[in-house]
Amino acid sequence: MIHVSRLRKVYETGVVALDGVDLDVREGEIFGVLGQSGAGKSTLLRCVNLLERPTSGTVTVAGQELTSLDLAALRRARQRIGMIHQHFALLSSRTVAGNVAFPLEVAGVPRRERATRVAELLDVVGLDGKASSYPAQLSGGQKQRVGIARALAAHPKVLLSDEATSALDPGTTQSILALLKRLNAELGLTILLITHEMHVIKAVCDSVAIMREGKVAEAGRVADLIATPGSLLTREIFPLPEPAPPGSVTVTFAGQAGEPVMSSLVRRFDVDVDILGGSLEDVGGVPSGRLRIRIDGGKRAEALDYLRERGLVREHGPEPVDARQPEPETGAETVAEEAR
Asked: Which domains does the chain have, with CATH numbers?
């Protein structure tokens, strides 16, 4: 649905905001772009609908290359792309209904059709009793709901969200995220959102790109990245002290967190399992976590193989040097070999 290729943005000051960014957002998914201030994520979002013209590279949305369009064609293409702003960007002199109707007026939609669409959207976002209110009379969460309704007015296929929850309190943030997830499911919207908050990624995103200094440092489906050894996402969601202690094993759970894996390991292989640290989170409705353990016993290697067969990721600390341990048999898989 959204394809960004080799995107580069250099400002007149010489600042390189985007440095060869590639991004692919599948139709119907919620894709999060995660990064701290200055990472380039806001510039990337504004380049997707060409509010910022990239220095080089291409942006394609719904099969149409926006970077090749003239101004008139670009305006038409933007009608299929809704945008939610961090600080709401509502017109203070207009009512809630007037704000939602504004893009329809610009598009030349007849008055009666506008009124029907506005009423429908206010019901969708839970503001059906606020049509005559003004922005100053609304809470932050209500203002953002107006912004979402306005972004949906022209039946867009794509919704862009620019830090839509960063100005809201935690409870309101959760309600707005739940609304976005419902709209994604019910309307089939493709949502590209940027955020510096990890809990937004965990709550609603199917895929994520982590940006650092104008580049994509890592990208993929959230579930896949959690199950990838050493992924940046896993390390940020489930931080553990580094470096790993000698002989330790870091096991990442992605959906198996409710299963008695550790107790099965002990019973099956008669090994001792020492838990050194870890954490458990709900990521996209799936219980996931990262656990650092040390396994001791004669069947340690078999226990490690068991973890692999269970589909668990293993990241190893350096193997401790112990002169009392026998040399492994020829061809035996050691922890040090796996670490390499």
From this structure: 2-226 (3.40.50.300), 232-339 (3.30.70.260)
